[in-house]
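Predict the 3D structure for this chain.
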Amino acid sequence: MTKQTAIPIPIPQSFEGRVALITGAASGIGHTVAHYFADRGARVVGVDLDPRIVSLMAELPGGAHHGIATDLTVEGAASEVVEETLRVGGGLDILVNSAGIALLDAAVDVPMDRWQATLDVNLSASFFLAQAAGRVMIDAGYGRIINLASQAALIGLDQHAAYAASKGAIVALTRVLSLEWARHGVTVNAISPTVVETPLGKKAWAGEKGERAREAIPVGRFAKPEEIAALIGYLAGEDAAMVTGSNVVIDGGFTSV
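Done. Predicted structure below.
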């Protein structure tokens, strides 16, 4: 009789003593990521335009979490958020740039204000927050930065000109930051999900449009927010210390077809 080898049960990763700054934390992927880190012992500072962010962060498990309601596209906001994070958290170990918008128009119809708004939120806000956080992390000799890109950074999607441009730039920016900061103990990575089943994602991809999109994904479904959070958790942890400058695709094989 062949002896069966026991499959080891993974030990949940701990972020005890770490401070995680997460943007877009009032809803969707950002809120799921905030829960992920809070469940694993981190002190979470969540940032969002939504004023509910203060109460939402206070409700996270473990206590001592903090919400900041602000517009990250305003000049100086990134530095103020990092300063407040240091004041309430005593440090800054992890940054997750999750906040983003998707204003979809045919390329011939994209108005300047919607183009600029997309770049301001998805690209510029992420860069200036990474810059402010990076200064702190470099001084500390340790840091983990994860930027939310998209499958739109890798393939053409209808009516996604502004969105794809912003997410493609996130991937390029991630490579530059990783190169400059690696020797200081700071890793910088991006992740590129397919459609994620957040409340907004479910609404946007309901009906026949969503069914066609699911059929185009080899695994036959969209991603779950918890799967995105788990990937972010890996990149933020000690097991991923050698991973930097990567754009990790989580799309059920869609971009490999």
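The chain has one domain: 19-248.
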